Amino acid sequence: MFALRVDQEIELQLFQPHHAAELYWLIDTNRLYLREWLPWVDNMTSPADYQSIIPMWLKQFADNNGFNAGIRYKGHLAGTISLHQIDWRNSQSSIGYYLALHAQGKGIMTRSVQAVLNHAFHDLNLNRVEIRCGAGNKKSRAIPERLGFMQEGWIRDGENLYGAFHDLVVYGMLSREWANRAVK
Amino acid sequence: MFALRVDQEIELQLFQPHHAAELYWLIDTNRLYLREWLPWVDNMTSPADYQSIIPMWLKQFADNNGFNAGIRYKGHLAGTISLHQIDWRNSQSSIGYYLALHAQGKGIMTRSVQAVLNHAFHDLNLNRVEIRCGAGNKKSRAIPERLGFMQEGWIRDGENLYGAFHDLVVYGMLSREWANRAVK
Amino acid sequence: MFALRVDQEIELQLFQPHHAAELYWLIDTNRLYLREWLPWVDNMTSPADYQSIIPMWLKQFADNNGFNAGIRYKGHLAGTISLHQIDWRNSQSSIGYYLALHAQGKGIMTRSVQAVLNHAFHDLNLNRVEIRCGAGNKKSRAIPERLGFMQEGWIRDGENLYGAFHDLVVYGMLSREWANRAVK
Amino acid sequence: MFALRVDQEIELQLFQPHHAAELYWLIDTNRLYLREWLPWVDNMTSPADYQSIIPMWLKQFADNNGFNAGIRYKGHLAGTISLHQIDWRNSQSSIGYYLALHAQGKGIMTRSVQAVLNHAFHDLNLNRVEIRCGAGNKKSRAIPERLGFMQEGWIRDGENLYGAFHDLVVYGMLSREWANRAVK
Amino acid sequence: MFALRVDQEIELQLFQPHHAAELYWLIDTNRLYLREWLPWVDNMTSPADYQSIIPMWLKQFADNNGFNAGIRYKGHLAGTISLHQIDWRNSQSSIGYYLALHAQGKGIMTRSVQAVLNHAFHDLNLNRVEIRCGAGNKKSRAIPERLGFMQEGWIRDGENLYGAFHDLVVYGMLSREWANRAVK
Amino acid sequence: MFALRVDQEIELQLFQPHHAAELYWLIDTNRLYLREWLPWVDNMTSPADYQSIIPMWLKQFADNNGFNAGIRYKGHLAGTISLHQIDWRNSQSSIGYYLALHAQGKGIMTRSVQAVLNHAFHDLNLNRVEIRCGAGNKKSRAIPERLGFMQEGWIRDGENLYGAFHDLVVYGMLSREWANRAVK
């Protein structure tokens, strides 16, 4: 219900407990697609799992430590986007996201990440935002690359995905770069 | 940033820590006007007071126990509205609100309360919403009366206002009444 | 063991964990009678339920936030009486109570509530005490009416009783009224 | 207000926050007398100290872990008595106490300790109760000796009293001994 | 891994979670021998029990409130030694220990207790250290007697051992005694 | 007192509260040297600062989440080394360290990091260990380079050092690499 409006089609809605069933449905109907790159998909076996996770997300939000939001495209839940734990001492945070298969190819995620970057740099005054993608996850890596992030690192064995380690690519965007880019 | 949109002019924005200064400014520039009926106005002596209160409001929101939102009218902070602690066992809660002097007379509060009622009855599935007003506070009492609440009680000495007790009037709206009213 | 003495026959004894079995027995032998107006009776299915509730009551007492006491009539547990959460800012609280069927008609509850009112107004310095009764609960309503409380409200659908909402009547007594009454 | 009645003259009243001033007055008017054997007397410099200690005592009581009570003699606060932390695994606890100078010589403490022993052995089902006294504190040691405790130990340097260590004498009473004694 | 070195053969290693299986094995292979004097042996039924106990021990250590260490003799776990809760106000604590049957007779425990006494008196600046032994536990009592502790008490029914109470003997060592002894 | 022995000259000693003064002295006598690359040096203004930090380090250790240890060279405190928060899901952690000026050039840090790597890979079974150094901090970067870490990233504006952001270099070592290296 409480949402950050991206544009006429998209809004990013803070997850509240009454969204648990809808969010579970999104995961459950995209399970095979999402589990290729998301390590926690198999842990989600019923809406009740989100009944306990959503309050933790809201607690994180209440601690001024990022948020987890549903991406609503024309009113329907199409994916999620999060601003992870904020390192206030060093003015940085990172963004995570995923989109249902049927919602691909409409620029939804690019527009959503832009909105979160604006929020991070303007409202929260952060200096740097990071995105980490599986090295082989082309769709995910296309987002920061399209938005002008710089590739800053390649973390070997950075993530355990269902028992096997794979590499992560680190992308960074600085506040001053985003400001200059916006000017263009 | 995360907001419930009421209509083209109004949105109800969850308070986050970076809103502390703006909220304090609203109180400080309406101090004499607001303190007539709000018992806590004198306690607010600097933006730092809201730096510690806003996280408690967000904690309450994270506990699925209501919210505190700024009323933005054409983008500017004009007042606040809250859904207080929720009595889930009995499916009820209460609404509190105030508006800056300069924003009076535009129907802002009536529209905002309507939106919160819709949220309470539809999203949260509550059965009853209460509003309590100072018995002598005509402007505040006009809201529930205009919206069709029933006057259910008159609590003698219900509130301590700067050392003196005054009476509170209790208004109630039931889910089925709101549904019927909305149909008209 | 720690008790507030009402008179030669009655004392109000703070519940401690070793009272769990006795309190459960009271509920269990009055189950049909009590569940007509008490929404939690069906939840009490063994003494163990009170093993976990009594510490919460004592925690509330330790927080200076009311108490839960057994009403002992000639040494035997006959009912309970509680001073609910205290609203210290507004100097008010409310009283709840029930009595076993066999202990009715002896003035036990009237005397017990009087003692709690004395405690609330004299020891705790409260300004107002409220009693809420089911609108159809004649026995319960007779207590505040006999003691001179004023009927201040009628809350529609105020309580969920085993799936159905019913109305609550609100009674209020002010400190100055109680003082004057005591003089007579 | 909630009290354990010892006899017609004495009751042991659970300390609540509204007793802070009275308890401080007791300490303050007996300061020189009490500090000879009580290590914490100098720390008590205003009623506010008890405002923060009493809630901790009540928390301990709520945790089923003993109590702190004022000894009221003919209605007036004359001293305190406590059942310390309870070792439930081994069914034992210890008792501590002190009496104002003016209340000495009336058997008040002997009767109070008897009542606490009855509570400990009968209500709480403990097997053993200990009393520890300063080795040179004759008045204090007279209590367990008069009540038939056995001297079980002499702890060298058992307590730090204002910078100097002194010895403690350990007295023990078992449930079966108390039962036999009560028979006589 | 983090260990206090006693001498060339012995070190006292802080228990960490990855030691749970090894510690359980020690108990399990000495079960009959250890349960004669240790009341908790029967509660240990799988390594998982230590998975939850070891973090509590470490929490106690983090609170500057003693420690629990494995006694490693020539690299192998042979027993445990602990410095229990510390009474900082009175500068005292107590030591507990046990040794596997096969490791008896090598002076392991005497040397280990010496090292803990040095730590307690020199690093932690305690004034008194206590050891409590079952009155009939000759092997255990031999340690403080050999090290020059003074027998200070005999606590009747001091401990509940699988349903039966037995007596405890209290031994004490003072900092100044240990210093003098060390000089010899 | 509890220490991980590196070799005959060096041990890594868990910080306990009684080390606060010694650790402060280390910082205070190396203040100018250390503050060039450590962002928190100016916050340390008295031993009391470490009195509150050390318990938090121990709490982290108790949570199985890394440690903070003093590097003792021939018995004297020469620097510190820490294993930071552990990401158990992905089996990785990071190491931080600093050395006093006078202790440079003896291979102390290289040997200490080797010992922590052995602990991380063998005792804790981690898969990856990271070291992050200021891009301009040659001495610090020499450690992972000498030990065969791979440079995996260059994080622009990765750290705020007294008001100015500077870049961090990320080095990574995998368990299998360390095992192979050790064989040589």
From TrEMBL, chains A, B, C, D, E, F:
GO terms for cellular component: cytoplasm. Keywords: Transferase. Residues 27-167 form the N-acetyltransferase domain. InterPro entries: Acyl_CoA_acyltransferase, GNAT_dom, Ribosomal_N-acetyltransferase. The keyword Transferase applies. GO terms for molecular function: protein N-terminal-serine acetyltransferase activity; protein-N-terminal-alanine acetyltransferase activity. The keyword Ligase does not apply. PROSITE patterns: GNAT. PANTHER family: RIBOSOMAL N-ACETYLTRANSFERASE YDAF-RELATED, RIBOSOMAL-PROTEIN-SERINE ACETYLTRANSFERASE. This is Alanine acetyltransferase. It comes from Mesobacillus campisalis.
